[in-house]
Specification:
Length: about 250
């Protein structure tokens, strides 16, 4: 039986690159987005490579919707082998005293509660069928403090905590829980920080020993590595994919 993966926020950036990689490796791929209008676009992108994808509209801040998507996936494909909790947002880049509480609330809803719901219902489904893998999207901001991003830092530190805690809970139940911590990657979130004037491209490239931004495919390969059966003894790990940033 083919393996099945759900990827939240899977129609753009790291999520889409991950979906394509899983599909190329024979998985049934389910991608989600809050923007239902993206369905046909992502289906066509997969089709151009001769690949298939299932799309479900999903707001990850809505617990009932997350549960429904997991249930529909299991009903359609028989089981859930992996879930990639990729959906996330970054708002209000500012030094701490200038931050807005509502920005933090929204990031906690999406970046933390959205991951929590995906983990909870993914784990519940996997327990019924003998196990599986979970990969969460953390960040170098979940391992360090970064300038003018304290609220985003807080949300991604929480993702690291959820990952490690759940990994311990299910270490003897064949459910592995890991995370990736991307560095500076060419995504809409980083472009938003540049557009807001918080950084220049030169500054972002300058914090990376490799002297360049990562590409979404770099992160997708790490996600697939953690989700695959090649790592049966790896759980509770936060895999840094950051061009050497954490080696400084």
């Amino acid at each position: 039986m083919k393996k099945t993966v759900i990827i939240t926020g899977g129609t753009t950036g790291i999520g889409k690159a991950s979906g394509l990689l899983f599909a190329r490796n024979g998985y049934n791929v389910v991608v989600t987005s809050r923007d239902a209008a993206r369905e046909q676009q992502v289906i066509e992108e997969f089709k151009r490579e001769g690949l298939e994808v299932t799309f479900y509209p999903l707001d990850v801040t809505n617990e009932a919707q997350v549960e429904e998507v997991v249930n529909k996936t299991v009903e359609k494909f028989g089981k859930l082998d992996s879930i990639v909790n990729n959906a996330g947002i970054s708002l209000g880049n500012a030094v701490f005293g200038k931050t807005v509480a509502e920005d933090l609330k929204q990031m906690l809803d999406t970046n933390v509660m959205g991951v929590y719901y995906g983990m909870k219902y993914g784990i519940n489904a996997m327990e019924k069928t003998g196990g599986g893998t979970i990969v969460n999207l953390a960040s170098i901001a979940g391992l360090n403090g970064l300038y003018a991003t304290a609220q985003y830092n807080a949300s991604k530190h929480a993702v690291v905590g959820l990952t490690k805690g759940a990994a311990i809970d299910y270490a003897k139940k064949n459910i592995r829980v890991n995370a990736v911590a991307p560095g500076a990657v060419r995504t809409a979130i980083f472009q938003g920080a540049i557009d807001a004037g918080m950084y220049t491209m030169e500054q972002i490239e300058g914090i990376c020993p490799m002297g360049r931004l990562g590409e979404v495919e770099d992160i997708a390969r790490g996600i697939f590595f953690l989700a695959s059966d090649d790592n049966p003894f790896m759980t509770g790990t936060v895999l840094s994919i950051d061009g050497g940033y954490n080696a400084i």
